Amino acid sequence: MIRDWLVRLGVTRRADADDTDVGGQASVPSLPAVAGPNSVLNPFALRLLGALPAADTQVVSPHCLAMALAMLARGAAGATYAQLRDSLGIPDSPEALQRYVAMLRGVASSGPRRDCVVESAAALWADRSTPLLESFVDDVRQWFGADVASVDFTDKNATAEQVNGWCGRVTRNRVTRIVGPDTMPRPPALLMTTAIYFKGGWTSPFEEGATITAPFHAPSGDVPVRLMYQTIATQYAETDDVQMVALPYFGRWQMTIILPRASSSLGTVVQRLRHPHELERLSRAMSKREVRLSLPRVSIDSGAMSLLPALTKIGIEAAFGLDTADFSRLTPLAPTWAIEVLHRATLDVDEAGTIATAATAIEMPCGSSLRHRTPRPVVMRVDRPYLMLVQAAYDGMILFAATVTQPPAAS
C-alpha cells in the first residue's frame, strides 16, 4: 500500500534511471533535471524559501524541517492538525500522514551508495514529569524510527548537552549546537528533534588547478572569491530571466544551480518559483548541453535560527498559540503548544562535491508550564547572487535549498 502511494507521488525510482559511473564528463540521468509534477515536498520547500528574509546568504533543509513538523502533526488535532497538514501538502485521509513520513524516510532507506550518503534521524525528548499518550509514542517510534528519551528539563545544561550531542552524531559533528540552556522550556515540557546528513561526490569533479580568484558581484559590491571551473555535458536551460544547470552526484542526487540574469534579481526568481508548476516548467525546458561552468566554492552555516516567522507566513499559526494549539493526541496536559522552531543548516561545496547537514528542534511547554521566553558552450558564470538546490535526480525532491548573495572571501 505504501509503495503504491509513493508511486502515485512519483517518489519511487524509475526503472530507466541511470546510476552508472562514468569518467570525464558527467553522465546525466534521462529524467527531467528538476521537480516533476508529483514531488510532494517541493511546494512546501519553495514557499518556505520565499518566506525567509530576503537578500541573505542562507541555507535550510526543507526535508529536515518537514520531518519535525510531521512529528508535530502526529500529536495535533482539529485546526492545529489541519494547518500543519495543508502547509506540508499532506492529503486529507486517515493514513496520509504515515505515508508522508514513509516518503521522507525513504530518502535514506537505501543506505550509502558509492560517493553519496544520505542519513536522517528523529528523536523525542520528554521531561520526566510530562505524560505522553502511548499511541503517540508508539507511532513516533514506528513511523519516524525515532529515539524516545526521558530527560530532566530542570537540569537545562545536561539536557541541552544530550540534545546537541545527538545532533552532532547524526551530522558527523557539523551541527553540534541547536539548543542551549537558555532556550529550553520549563518542565513539564518536551522537545522534538530531526537531523540529516548529506555527502555527494560529483560524477564530474572540478579540477583544483582550474580554480581561480575572481570577483563575485554581491549586492554590497564586488568581493574576491575562489571560482571553480569546468566544461561539462549536462542538463541545461535558459530563459529571459534565468540560466539553470544540473550537476549530478554519484547515486540518485544532483545539484541544480539557478542563476538570475543580470537584468533580474535573486529575490524575484525565488518568489516566482513559489508559483505552482514554475519549477516543473523550467525543468521541462532542460536539455543536454555542453556548459562552460564557473561556480564559487561555498561554505555556509546558518547558525541556529527561529523559523516561527517564516512558518507563520506559510499558514502554520494555531500550533504556536497558547490559546489555539490542540495537541490532545500527544499528551493529556493542556495547554500544550510549540513556542519555538529552531533550525540550523550547513552547506559546503568544493571541487570534489557537497556536504550538507541540518537539524531542527521544536520546543513545547506542556500543561501549566509558563512561556519561558519570547520566540525569536553556453557560458554560465556564477559570479552574482544565486540559488542552490540539492535534489533527488529521479523526481526533484528538494533536500537542501540555499541562496548565496556573498560567498566567503578568497584567502
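the 2nd protein, sequnce then structure:
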Amino acid sequence: MINNKQLETLNKCLISTNDDLKEYIISFCKQNGYEILERKKYLFGYLKDSKLNIMLTAHYDVVHEKKVDSEVFYDNKHQVFWSPNGLGADDRTGIFIILNQIETQKPRFLLFTDEEEKGGLGGEEFCKDFTKKIDTNLFIALDRRGHKNFVTYDDDNQEVEKLIKSYGFEKEHGSFTDICRLMEEFDISGVNLSVGYENNHTFTETLRINNMEYTMSALDVLLKDEALNTKYVFTKKKYEPYIYQTREYGYNKDGIYRIWNSATQKFDIKQDIAKNIDKQKETNDIIKQEVDVKDQEKPAIEFNSPNNCAKFDIPKHKARDIGSCEDCLFALECKDNFTALNDFCIESGISKDEAYGNGNCSFCINIHDCYPGETCVMNDMFIIESFNLNNCEKCNINCSDKKYVDNKVNKEETIH
C-alpha cells in the first residue's frame, strides 16, 4: 500500500507541465546520487558505482496538454486517479515508479524521454548520442497499459520471457515504445511492464492504484533477482510472410517486419508486380471494356495521361467508380480525391492499412474502428486478420475476440 508521501509524489507527476516535471526529475535523481545529463528530448541518469546493471526507462510527454492549473482527482474509495482534462498516466505513472524505485534500489542507468508519443523521438535522439556505447544487461520500460502483462516487441529472447512470467506477468502484443529503438541500437533485450493505466490517449483515462502497486512490488523483487546479473542479448523475431487480402506481411528489403506500405514503398514492389503482372494485364483489358461499354456515348478515354489511375490506365474517377481502389497495391496520388470507399484513417487521411503500417495508431488520441485491436488467442495475428481468414468460424472457443468480431459484423461495418 503506497503511503501519503508517495501519493503526493504521484500527484506531482500527474499534474506537472513537461518543464516542471523535468526539473523535478533532475532534482530528485541528484538527491539520490545520480549524475544527470540533460538534453532537449531526454534526461539520462547514471550511477557509476551501482552493481545493478540495468536501465529503467519511461517518458514524461503526454498526449494531453498539461497546464499549470491541471486538475487531477483521486477516488479514495475505489483508489483511482482521473482527470476531466485527460490524466496523462501514460506515462507519468512510469516516471513515478522509477523515482520511487531509486530511493530503495539503485539501477545504474535511468532514461526519461520526451516525444515518445510522436514516434519515440527522445529515444531516437538518445540512440544517436550514445551509438553502441551503453553496456547494460536489460532494458525495463514502465509504459504499458493494463494489469500484470508485458510486451517484448521484436525481441524473441526466451530467457527474458521466462524470467518476467515468473513474476506473474503474461505476455501480450504491443505496438511501440522507446525500448523498440534501444534494443535494436544496443543489441540488448528489453521488456515493457504494465503499470495500471487504462484508456490511455483518451479523456476517460484512469489509473488504478492497486494495479500499479502490483507492478511496483514485483519490480522491487525482480531487481534483487540474481538473474539480472546476466546480459540478455536482443534476439530478432523471425516472421513467416503470409498473404492477406492481397497485401504481404513479413520482412521487407530493409529488414523491417511490417505490412507493405504503399506510401513509402518500403516493401519489394517489383517482386509483387512480377508475380501479378499477367493478372493485372488481364484485369486491365476487362476494366477498359467495362468502361468503354459504360461510356460509349462519351468522348474516348485518353490513355497514358498523368490524370489516369496509376494501376489501370483510365481516368481516376472511373477507376474509383468501378471499385478498383479496394485492392490496389500502388502508391496512389489519387487517394486524396478518393471518397467512393470508406477505407481511410479518420486521423491521418491515408488508407487505414497505411496508417497502421506507419505506426500512426500507436499515438492516435482517438479510438477508431479502424484500429486492428489485440491478437487472437488462437493465432499469432490480429483479431481482424484472423477473422478475415475465417478462423473464427473454425474456433470453438467463446472468447472476447469472437465477441469483438461479432459486434463488428452486427453493426454491418466493413472490417479492414
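The chain is about 35% helix and 15% strand. The domain at 4-229 is CATH 3.40.630.10 (Aminopeptidase).
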